[in-house]
Amino acid sequence: MSGILVLYHFCDFTDRTTQTTSSILQILLRQVVLHGTPAQLASIQKLYDKRSSTSKDPPRLKELTKMFTNICSLHEQMYVVLDALDEFNDRRTLFSVLKEVVKSGVKMFVTSRDLPDIRDALHNGRHVEIKANREDLKIYVEDRLSDSEFSGSAGTSRIVEVIVNHVERLLMNHLTNLTTIKQMRRFLESMSSGLEEAYASSLDRILGQPPSRAALALRLIGWVVHVEQRLRVEEILHAFAVEEDSDEIDEEN
């Protein structure tokens, strides 16, 4: 056993239909083939030969899990990075596999939005919240502007303030290529709030959910959009509990 091996996978919400726990394990195994130790490669070859001699079908999840954990145990230090775990659909299945992977000695690094099921599944791990610090952003923007011809110009403090307020979608490179403070101010003032892009992205995520969940979300949006006054949570639950052609509230709904 020797060396450090880091495996990585990015969970892309646009690829939810083909992204499965099995496919993630296959991707990680492929990285082991490319960067693993001779012992790991020999182990993979042995397992492949044994599997191919008995079946031509793709290996099942249980087989892939066993193969991966066995290979992990052959490395002194192995790390698996799962980026954007919240974008992966079948997390329950993946969590059960990750438990086996961790037992084999692998260190896990996961990035995700703070969702309840992910927090519960990873409750034994260390949680670090990552967010932009306003003062750090201000220092960064001021430093970038100091390298431009606007260094020390009147009005730069206002530019810095607006940039920090729009940091999530502002293109610094484009901004610093402008030639006057007036151009920069006009550019900042003309920036949209980004709501259209945010709504489009949210809708894509909704439609990427399993059909039953997507239908439920669209139904909820329909209620929210068409009501004449704001609904309380209890009222929404009651609305969902009434089925078509029925005037009764079904408690099981």
From TrEMBL:
The keyword Iron does not apply. Pfam families: NPHP3_N. The keyword Repeat applies. Keywords: Repeat. Residues 5-113 form the Nephrocystin 3-like N-terminal domain. PANTHER family: AMELOGENIN, NACHT DOMAIN-CONTAINING PROTEIN. This is Nephrocystin 3-like N-terminal domain-containing protein. It comes from Sphaerobolus stellatus (strain SS14).
